[in-house]
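Researcher: Structure for this, please.
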Amino acid sequence: MQTNIALSSAALAMVLAAPSHAQTATPTPADASTQAPAEAGPATAAGAVTGDIIVTAQRRASTVREVPFSIAAFSGEQLRTQQINSPAALVGTTPGITINTADKSLSIVAIRGNVSTFRTATLDTPVAFFVDDVYYVFNNDLNSNFYDVSRVELLRGPQGTLFGRNVVGGAIAVITNNPEFDTNYYGQLTGGNRGYLRTEGAFNTVLEDDKIAGRIAFSTERSDGLIKAPNQSGRYGDMDSYAARGKLLFTPTDTLKIVLAGDYSYTSGNGGAISLGIGGNQVVPATFGNFTNAEWVNNDYARSPYHQRLRGGYLRGDLDLLGGVLTAISGYRMNNSYALNDDVPVGTVTPVFGRAQNVRNRSFTQEVRFASAPNRLSYVVGAYYLSANVYTNNQFFYSPLPGSSTAAAVRPNPSITNIDRVQNGNVRSVAVFGEATFAVTDRFSLIAGGRYTSDRKKIDYHAFSLTDPGTIPGFGFPGEVFASGGKTWNAFTPRFSAKWKPIDAVNFYVTYAKGFKSGGFVDNAYRNPTIPLDPEKAENIEGGIKSRFFDNKVDVNLSVFRQKTKNLQNFSGAGGIAHTYNGTLVMRGAELESVVRPAPDVRLTFNYTYLKGKYTSLKDPLVVADYSGNPAKYAPRNAFAVGASYDAHIGNGGTITPQADFSYSDRISTDDANTLRLYPNLYDKTRGRTLNARLTYEDPNKRWTVGAWVKNLTNNYQILHADDITAFLIRPGAGTTYWKIFTNTPRTFGATLTFKN
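Model: Predicted structure, token format:
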């Protein structure tokens, strides 16, 4: 910790000490298109028009059209209007990505088929999650919600040069609103069916003219649950959460801006949309009791509680220096969470498989970077540091039905066999990075950059059983295990781009980029997990066009790509035993985003993604299975989203806006063996078809709006994830399979009131 404090102090000193130099030098005026803006304040960029979202994916303010890789951006106003209140809700507007937070112990996020479905300490996720440039270490941080957000940027493909933590699949970056020198506020109240109630608001004030401003934001959310639960009281999916964030903005000089922020959130409930699906012959064992194989019904006898506490803060300084910007960001995050999932009802109240997870994470990040003044040659250079302590306690409870395949390995139902795995991990990452842009001509630019990353990881492991302290040979448990290990992985990840602007409204680009996700330690069926797992290395080549035509009435952005991920860190539960191993994934695809504005008050959108990926090498050593050639998980071949809105101005000066959006995605594979496709009654339901609609009225003074909304209007049922748990119920081969499935939620509707000054 002393090292962390020293690094933070040194970084801040660099920013605080520099004003004396900046005041004596004559700074070069900075073009808004290259000047890095405050993290959430208003920004402009060259070529931007009203309604454009300014992004900072390249550490400089620019429009999406200027970024030479695939990126989607959402404004805070768009998120609030469309009821996109969490990362998982982005799926409906961004085809081709998967975010599933129904299992509160494990959030699943996939971009271009790069996905993590494991719970092992020290292993990184292929898709990184950032809030205000601060990296969130654990995948269930995605359970957090959006409130008082300025924008969200979704970056596809490897981000191995400038963007915080080095990742192979992509990044989700949330930027919240900073204080400003004004007094204002807004509030939003939403009510819906099944006791849904959500509030959000913020208050901004000036504490000292032109020197100190403050902002406080909050959010609360509750629901009685949408999933029927015949074997337990209430409904499944109930939740209660609250969150708050405070920020102070300090501008001691015209060239220095400092932001101090802190946040806290707490969420509790009893799980998401989880149920049991039956594939093949629809045979329901008599021991299942009061079972119904209906949509949106959870048949577990035991409730599945969860709670999560997230808190932390950051200190950021931005100094105008030599026409550029020097930025230092020190962040600290804490995550405490607990989640329990029980699988499958039986005549006793003992689940056949239960799992609980305790998580305690602490992380410190420090980033220092300098973005040069705009010129024919401009550049960004910097350094990044991460120190994280990750504690996970996974508890597994096995009580398979008599006659099932796993009943021969552990004591059958109603007895319980318990196995605990306690993992204490430490991650230390150090990186230096840089990227330069050279304008060969006014219309042609070359970009080259790279990042050198060194990750050191350590782990202490303890596995034991409270019910069976001896060995369980048939289930891979050798008795109590103590182990420790550590390893360092290093990598250099370059990125090269070329951009050509034949006319002002058209940008062509081609980009070659590598990404790196350092190794970890093998989760190998409760045995010694200190065997190193190879690091993932992604190589992506992408080309595209980003354009605006017909007097700003039509935007068309198209990208095509081929990405190869070597040493894919794959997690499997095959055989009923959690384990990890390496493989290779090749993904090809195309992504189209378009906006049409045929009239000033009409907006039409069409976004489409095509993905074709397969595992060129994927061999599971535990169950001796070769999955090479199978399609990539969580990668729909075709997916699209369409939307339309119209602002109708009425006689009193108010505006009525009807809106609708529809998203579609093809069927997906949810496991390595791709066996779900053998059971059409389940496989066909992985296809998504979701229609949402809204109708809002805004008063003439634009002080308040009121609206009605409905999500999943047609009540389309979709399976998002499925685990084969047949081995806990019967011996496979009887023509029936059983799956623990995670789904979307049924139709919801309500009304929203928003007011602001």
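Researcher: Any notable elements?
Model: The chain has a mean pLDDT of 85. The first strand starts at residue 54 and ends at 55.
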